[in-house]
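User: Some background: our group keeps a shared notebook of sequences we're curious about, and every so often someone picks one and asks for a predicted structure to add to the entry. Today it's my turn. The entry only has the sequence so far, pasted here. Could you supply the structure so I can complete it?
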Amino acid sequence: MPETDSPSQVVVSVVVPCFRSIDFLPACIATFTAQTLDPDLFETIFVFNGTDDGGMALAEELLSASGLHHQILKSSVGASPARNRGSQQARGSWIVFHDVDDTLSPQYLEALLASATSRTIVPVAGIVDIDEFGNEKPSEIHEQIQEHRGVVDARDLRRVLTLATLKLIPAEVVHRHPFNEQLDSGEDVALFADMADAEGLSFDTTPAHEGAMYRRLVRAGSVGRQGMTFDFKVRQRLDVIEVLEQQIERGGPLKDLIASFVISQASFISRYLDAHPEQQETVVAAIKERDLHNFPWYVLRLRSQRLIVSYNFAPFSDPSSVVALKRAVVSGKKWNVISADMSSVRSTDRTLARLARDAVAEHTMVDGPAVWSQWSGMEDFMERGWTALEELEVVHGRQREVHSRAMWPASHYLGALIKARRGAEVHWAAEFSDPLSTDVKGNFRPGVVTPSPLLAELEDALRAVGVEPPGTDSLFVWAETVAYGLADQIMFTNPHQMTAMLERVTDRTLRERILDRAVVSPQPTLPEAWYDLGRGPTTLTPGVFHIGYFGSFYPTRGMGDVFKALAELPAEKAARIKLHLFTASTPQLAEEIARNPRRSSIIVYNSLPYLDFLRATREFDLLFLNDAETRSVGKRVNPYLPSKLSDYLGSGSPIWAMAEPGSMLSRSPVHHITRLGDVPAAVALLNQLVPGGIR
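Assistant: Of course. Here's the predicted structure to add to the notebook entry:
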């Protein structure tokens, strides 16, 4: 290891990784000999990595002649191994990183050391970019430094944290935080915010304001300026993002800053896709292989020829919105979305954006008031939705696959309009969450269509495929009929729903068409990993049997039977049970609880955001759900299946279903089933579960 004697007063070690550096060594060494800092106070450590191009011999010759304290070392290939090797051998108590092709202003080291007054404050120099012809270029990094004088927070100098250079860092801090040698590039991005986070570092820009300048050569061959290759723009960026995600998951105070670096790295991938759109599937597959929980998909501006039309969609909090989004997520594909602004009738759910990032390419939310059963609202959504489609297709190209989902009928009206105008070039799947034309009591829903050019267009489209338009002005019957008559695929969520809806179709030709295109597709269950992302409920009291219920109450679906079962339990048994209701509190619910002698066993909470709800389902001893009561209103089959069942099934927690005989819920793969209305059976089940079920 060639070196000069290094007296004990050496304070600063300058580490210089060298790769194919022979042309840059003379200027690099000259910039150190020109420093105004006493040469006895610093050493230079040149670390050669990779094939020797004669640089080691030249460095030894020039450094020996310079009189500088120095070391010449070798390491494995890469800037990170070289910097780590040099740092390990450093004899100064402060370390500076320097790139061999760059130079310094004469006062650089002296100004940095003058500001080294604390082991938690990192002095920072300024920077100027120099092209290969010696011309100075503006630097966004330097502009950011100039905006802040004195000691500042790491968040104020985010660009400085993306460079290894410019900084004077305590040696013990560098030793605790080596460069990641598994990264081929971006190792500085992956290091310094995490270092600042872990060590509580702040930064002092005084040296920059006093003229200490780092002169960075911007050249085509440097690591940070590699070409538009898949390896550099995609693979290496994903390597860095993986490391950054691990840092974010530790939850330090700078996690939001680190998350911004994830976005910056994803921007490289986005630019690669802009240049190579034909490789979108390959890039998406590469990202999904990494299992990155916080990848910012929206940055990529992915193109998609698949469209979801869902009047009610994320970020609005509603079972219909959530199921439409889950359909997109479990498909494993990217979808464009056209939806309505539901802010006048629905609250938003902050956690749905996390789901949407993985599944949505572009989302257009159509302006206008939310409308359930007025024909003018259907027409407005069709017109605005068609305009949104045309604008979306400027970027994404023709949409070849359309999926519409209703309870809200406007979804199917826009789906039908797209199919009517595009014909065979688009495949339209129309999904029904529940019977549309009749309510839970079997009554026809109010709402009528009125003659208009758009209605006439749908009439013509139906007749063109041999389907007679409805002989009624019911808006909801029309919504069902245009889906039955025009869709290439008609989706039902359970067989009983399909049976109940087909019973109302009297046109034999239309009925045959439905049967030919019908599929039963249960509401989707998300993969297990999604259940770990939210925040769970408050800590549950040990030694108590905890039952969780999540959802809304309706005239045909309530908690009356469960409340009665609690009331019939012995007081000492009921005291060992807590029934947690996550629902919208109403005066009727509050009154029911107040009348119950076991009211101390019942706790009501606000409904949870969706991902928090998923997390919470894993915390309870038992999850409860119940059927809608349909026998009293004369329904031959119960067409309803609680949407929460699909989410409960993914939790791994035991499930208790209170079901109508023969219903789909009564046939579901849950752990315990009692008959709706059978309070003694519910009491018996609780007596059975509580002694052996407490955690």
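Suggested note for the entry: The chain has a mean pLDDT of 93. The chain is about 40% helix and 15% strand.
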